[in-house]
Amino acid sequence: MARKSSNRRQRYIDSEIGGVFQKKKGKIDIVLIYPNTYSVGMSNLGFQTVYRLLNEMDAVSCERAFLPDFDEKAGSEVRTVETNRLITEFDVIAFSVSFESDFLNLIAVVEKAGLPLQSAARGDPHPLVIAGGVACFLNPEPVAPFVDCFLIGEAEQLLPRFIDALDLASGKQDFLYRAACTLPGVYVPEFYTPSYHSDMTFRALTPNRADIPETVKRVFEKEISRTFSCTSILTPNTVFKNTFLMEVSRGCPHGCRFCSAGYIYRPPRFRSFSTLKQNIDMGKEKSRKIGFMGAAVSDHPDIGGLCQYAMDKGFSVSFSSLRANAFTPELISALKKSDIKTVTIAPEAGSERMRCIINKGITENQIYEAVKMVVQSGIPNLKLYFMIGLPWETTHDIEAIVTLCKEIKEKFLMESREKKRIGTITVSVNPFVPKPFTPFQWAPMNDVKQLNKKIEIIRDGLKKVANVRIQAESPRRAIVQGLLSRGDRRIADLLLLAVKNQGNWSKTFKETDLDIGFFANRERSIDEFLPWDFIDHGIRKSFLVKEYNRAQREETSAPCPMKPCDQCGVCTN
Question: Which residue pairs from 315-318 have beta carbons closer than 8 angstroms and sit at least 24 positions apart in sequence?
């Protein structure tokens, strides 16, 4: 098995373009870990950006490590890609966590390394264990007992300050105390004590030293055009298969009420056309495929010119997402010329009522027009993304998903006949999971039985419709995500049990006395203190409450104006 792991590592190295394999002597030794497999981790643009930023610092030597692949022995050691060293040989073990589902893998990596799992049991001989990434600055509490400190915010501004202050010579505890007191965005869980009401609801997270701040303020990059975020290491062993990825935008102005990206990344920011052209030029020596990434790619004011510039340079282009009301002949033409076979449209909900509730901001006519443009361009396949279990959803709203899909199929078929070719429509059905720092953070989540019933309605309604396939995310997996999304430190023991059960959540739930529904499915009171309320993202809670109430009244809200205003609080701080 060790030889198999070594051979795989060598294949990864041999296939990479851009890896950093020259170790710097006498510097801070950091191992950057994505708590999932190599293929998943190297597909993550944020992980690649942090790797590049760290290795650009004179004071740092950074290597990568990942969770051992699934076909490797359960007890496999975690070693770096660059030099095959054990992660315990480094000064700092840094986790980049994008998804709550990888919290379990974070603990598993620490266990595989042979380190004490609890932060309190790790002394100065052990590496400093830190974690960052979007999952951490949404809600780090479920894994707080296992991490020495969290970095809350965006890496471009946060990492240089942290590395400049990093000095373990006087002991890890001394550094953590100084960092928690003086560095914005640094959260050290051991300096905060949680308390609870008699009904199990969260009371507070209180500093246990006088000079520790009550809140941790997120750090963000005001002008992202000063920086770039693009693929630093190209490899075929990823989801995107040798595609050069580049971040076009950060955040989203539309404010869909279920989406954390529309709130924690406020204000929304776009990179300048000139910066993005430089990014494209950087990629021409690595690949002929380019992927534009961001929650609001199609909102970029120069997206048409950007596509044309990339194609003039010989690239094929693809997008992480496009809104149905942003489809233009230029964008569709770019996709067609790039030989894209499938385009994704996300109505999110089947009825206009539900799209008002979630503040989606697109109409059925805009969806139909987007479908028409896709088929007329010659792109054969369509993927439709829907959510179920949304707040105030009724059976009629679920049936409306079936009706909308049938209408889309009719228009799809009508346009396809002219092309004398019909492709496939894939309907992706995904349970709603309430996310911190969104207007729906208080909303209840459907249980497994409710979600299965709604999926069955959709399957039954579309089973006789030719060329339509249904893909439904597991409701049980969604409940786990909801548990980790809104849980607090009391979830930590459950995570340890899940690690012991090798990720078997069904077995874990049967063996615990914890009330899963209390954390995953319960509606929160507006005045309840939430486990993540100690993080300051600059968004007024009153604004989120207002949006939650507007949703209940089925009212939409205008997009973020992307200029200083007093709408949510971020741009007036």
Answer: 315/244, 315/280, 315/283, 315/284, 315/287, 315/288, 315/289, 315/290, 316/288, 316/289, 316/290, 317/289, 317/290, 317/291, 317/292, 318/243, 318/289, 318/290, 318/291, 318/292
